[in-house]
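Module 6 notes. Inverse folding takes a fixed backbone as the condition and produces residue identities as the prediction. Think of it as a translation problem where the source language is geometry and the target language is the twenty amino acids. Below is one complete input and output pair. Work through it position by position during the lab.
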């Protein structure tokens, strides 16, 4: 059952919508929960919109580090083809992020919709694209609030 939590007080949290649990990442990959790939089945022909909630607890902003965290949608339950970015967030060092300041730890959100150009994407996952010179990486959790 959805509930507010001390960690995410502004958003309803449901563990079934967790896309990535805590853990340091240093390479480009899909999000995992309990060390397993996490793909949500949002239902056939089911439109959803809401926010992706990111709680960053560590961010390496050395050199030219950047971290794009995207919500990907797909018609494929394995994400083998037809993947589409439904929304994203860019974090990192000041020189590479639009905010012009180093990203800091804390809560970030971005909106999403599971429909684009009359196509509804049934499956969703979080995907982080990491580039630049990375020493320690980024530690974050991610979930959907719909």
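Target side of the pair, the amino acids:
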């Amino acid at each position: 059952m959805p509930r507010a939590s001390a960690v995410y007080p502004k958003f309803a949290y449901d563990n079934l919508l967790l896309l990535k649990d805590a853990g340091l990442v240093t390479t480009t990959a899909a999000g995992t929960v309990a060390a397993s790939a996490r793909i949500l089945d949002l239902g056939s022909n089911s439109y959803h919109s809401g926010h992706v909630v990111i709680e960053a607890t560590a961010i390496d902003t050395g050199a030219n580090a950047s971290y794009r965290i995207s919500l990907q949608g797909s018609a494929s339950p394995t994400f083998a083809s037809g993947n589409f970015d439904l929304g994203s967030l860019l974090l990192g060092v000041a020189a590479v992020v639009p905010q012009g300041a180093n990203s800091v730890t804390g809560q970030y959100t971005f909106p999403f919709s599971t429909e684009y150009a009359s196509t509804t994407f049934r499956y969703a996952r979080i995907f982080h694209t990491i580039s630049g010179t990375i020493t320690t990486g980024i530690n974050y959790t991610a979930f959907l609030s719909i």
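Reference fact for the lab report: The chain has one domain: 16-145.
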